Fold this sequence. Notes:
heterodimer, A: alpha+beta, Butyryl-CoA Dehydrogenase, subunit A, domain 3, Butyryl-CoA Dehydrogenase, subunit A, domain 2, Four Helix Bundle (Hemerythrin (Met), subunit A), 3 domains, two-stranded antiparallel ribbon, 58% helix, B: 291 residues, alpha/beta, Rossmann fold, nine-stranded mixed β-sheet, 27% helix
Amino acid sequence: MANYYNDNKELKFHLNHPLMEKIVRLKERNFSESGAFDYAPMDHEDAMDNFDKVLEVVGEICGDIVGPNAESIDAEGPQVVEGHVIYARGTSENIEALNKAGLMGMSLPRKYGGLNFPIVPYIMAADIVSRADAGFVNIWGLQDCAETINEFASEEQKEKYLTRVCNGDTMAMDLTEPDAGSDLQAVQLKAVYDEKSGKWILNGVKRFITNGDGDISLVLARSEPGTKDGRGLSMFIYDKRDGGVSVRRIEHKMGIIGSPTCELVFKDAPAELVGSRKMGLIKYVMALMNGARLGIAAQSVGVSEAAYREALAYAKERVQFGKAIMRFPAVYEMLSNMKAKLDASRTLLYETARFVDMYKTYMHIAEERKLEKEERDEMKTYQRLADIFTPLVKGMASEYSNQLAYDAVQIHGGSGFMKDYPVERIYRDARITSIYEGTTQLQVVAAIRGVTTGAYLKQIRAYEAAKISPELEHLRRTLIILTDEYEQAVNKVVGTDDNEFIDFHARRLVEMGGHIIMSYLLVLDANRDAIFAKSAKNYIRMAKAQVRANAEFIRTSDLSDLGSYKYEMQ
Amino acid sequence: MKAYKIIVLAKQVPDTRNVGKDAMKADGTINRAALSAIFNPEDLNALEQALRIKDSFPGSTVTILTMGPGRAAEIIREGMFRGADGGILLTDRAFAGSDTLATSYAISQALKKVKDYDIIIAGRQAIDGDTAQVGPQVAEKLGIPQVTYVEEVQKIEKGKVFMKRRLERGVETVSCPIPLVMTVNGSAPDCRARNSKLLMKCKHAKTVTELQNSNEDYLHLYNDRPYLNIPEWTVNDIEVEQAELGLSGSPTKVKTVENVVLQAKDAKIISSSDNDIDELMRELIESHTIG
C-alpha cells in the first residue's frame, strides 16, 4: 500500500515550481487540444492536477509492484533464449502494470497516443521508478529515445513508431561497439542502402546495449564507406518485427541486474534512416545523449532517495548502547548530509528539466509557426542553460548517489554487507550511474564550457539577485563570498590559456560551480518552503568546505606541478 | 464475438485494514471520521474480473452499481479510471441503516430497473461487515444462479461462464448459464492500476448532487461529454416497498459490540447436513450470538 509519490512531499514541491505555468501553457499551445482530446487539460490548474494524479498512479504502482519486485528481479535476472531476451518474471509484471496504466509515451504528442506531458513530470516519474528499482527504470525509461524520433524522424516514421511506443513497445539505443565506447566516432556497424527494398541493411556488432532486444531500436551505423570519423555515421531505426538482430549474450553485471545489457549481432538487418545521412553522431546522438543523461540524473536521484530512506529507517530501528543509532552524532551527521545531497541533486535535476522543457517546447512550436524574436531569444537562453546544466546534474547527482549508497551501507554496519537488506542491492545499482551515458570525467569535459564561457557564473549571479526572505540572507552572503573565490580560481586556471592545465583542474572547477549552484537552488527552495531550510543550511556548510578545498588546491597549483602526476608510457 | 453487459456491485467501506487508536468511539461504534473511505478490496478483485471479460470481448460494458452516501460516487470514478464505462449511485436517506437483507433488496430492485444485464459480479464480502451475504441474496431476489468464491473467469462459451472457485480444500471448476451473479474471492488477481488517460478523461465525472455542491469551472463539459454525468438513483427512481428499506427493512439489530480476541487455534468445519446446521443454530442461540 506504499505510494512513492504521495510519501515524498519534496516531489510535489518541485512539480509546483512557478516556471511550470509557462512551460505548461507552451506545451499545451494555450490549451488548444482540450476539444480534440478528451484527456487534454482545460487550463493550467487542470493540467497540474493531471500531473499530480498521474504521478500518484506511478507512485502507487512503484510502491505496490515495482518496489516489491526489485529483489526477485535482482536474484533472477534476464536470460537469453534463442537469440532473444527473456526478462525476469518481475520485470514482465512491472512492464505490464505500467503499460496498462498508460505510462509509456508520457511526453509524446497526443496524436500518437502520448500524454503530452512536459519533461518535468516525466522525469519525476523516472525519479519515482528509480527509487523502486534502478535496474527496471532502464527498460521503462528508454521511452525517452522516442523523443529523438519525435524530433528528427519523418511524419510517417513518427506515426508508425511513436504510436507503438505509446502502446507499450520498449526501446533501445544501439550506440556502443567493442571498439567504440566513449569515442563513438569509431563506430563500425555497416549500413548499406539496398535499392531493391528501399531499405538500409545493417551488419556488424554492438555491445553493452541496454535492453538491446527492445521492440524499436535507434542504431548508429556507418553509412558512408571509407570514412573513419563521426561524419560518416547516420542514425537508423531497427524494428524487431523485421528480424535480423540476435542477442549473442547478456553481460554479467555488478548491479542493475534486471536490465539486460546485450551484445547484438546484426546480420542483414533491415532498417530505416532517421533524418539526414551523416548527421547520426553530430546531431542525433547528441540529442539522444542529452535526453539519456537527464534520465540517468533522475535515476541517480531515485537511487539516492532509496538509499537515504533505507539508512534512515535502519538508524531509527537499530539500537546500540541503549539507544537508536540515529541519536549518535556520527550517524545523524551522516544522515543529514545524505539528505542535503539528495535535496541538492534533486533541485538541480528539476531546474535542468525545466530548462530542457522550455527550449524543447519552443523548438517544437517553431516547426508549427515562426517564433517571435523574444521567443527565439528565450529558446536560445534556455538551450544554453540546458546544455551546461545537463552534464552538471548527470555528474553531480550520480556521484552523490554513489556517496549516499556508500553511507547507507555504512549506517547498516555489518548487516549492510549482507544480502539481507535492500541497501546491498542499492549500493551495487548506484555504481553504474557515474559510468554510463558518459563517465563523470566526460561530463566534466562537457560541463567545463559552462565554467570557461562564464555561463555558470552568469546563472549564479541571476540566482544571487533573486528575492529571498531576511532569515536566509546570511546564506546568500556566504554564497557571494564563495562565488568570488570560484571566480578567482576560474580566472587563474583559464588565464594560463593552457588546455592541459584547464583539463587538469576541470573537475575541481565544475564541482565548485556545481556546489554554488545547488546551494542557491536550495536557498530558493527554502524560501518557498521551510522543509528545505535544514538541507540548505547543511549543504552550504558542506559546500563551503568543498569549494574552499578546491580553491586552495588550485591556488597552490601551477603548470609545473603536472609533471609529478604524469606517467611515462613504456 | 458476443459482447456482455456486466454489472459490478461495489461498496465504499471504511479502511479497516489501517485501524489506529481512534478507530472506535467510546460507545463501541466505528469512528468513520478516523478511517479513510476506500473501494472494498474484494470488489476491486471483482472489477478486475469484469474488466478482463471486457478485454476479451470487445464491446462489452462494465457498469459499477453502488449503494451508499453521496461520497460513494468516488467508487464509481475509481472504477472508471480502471476501465469501467460508468456507474450508478443508489443513494437515499431511506437506505440508511440497511442490513444485508435491506441492501440486497434495494440493489436487486435497482438491477430490475437496469434490466439489461448478463453478468453481475460482486466481491465476496466487504471488510466492514464481512457477511458475504449481499451477493447471494441479490441472486436469490433476481431469481438467477449464483457462483461464489470465484477466483478466475476462464472462458465464456455458448452462453455459459466457466469459472474457477477457490474452496477450503482445493479448487473447483464450474460453468453457469448467463445471466448469473458471481462473487469473487480476494485470492483472485489484484485489480489493475488506474489508467492515466482514463483518469484525466473521467476525473471530472460527478453526480448531479456533487455538481450542485461544487464550484465546477467546466460546466459545459457535462453537456458535451455525457459520460461525465454519474446517474444518481433514489427511492423514487426504483420500484420499492418503503417498509423493506433501511432500518425498518432490516431484521438485524446490533445488541452490543464487544472486543473479542480470537484464541481458538483451530477452526471447526461444519458440513451442510441438516444435523450440523441444527447443532450450529443451537450453539449460536445458547451463546446468545443469535436471538
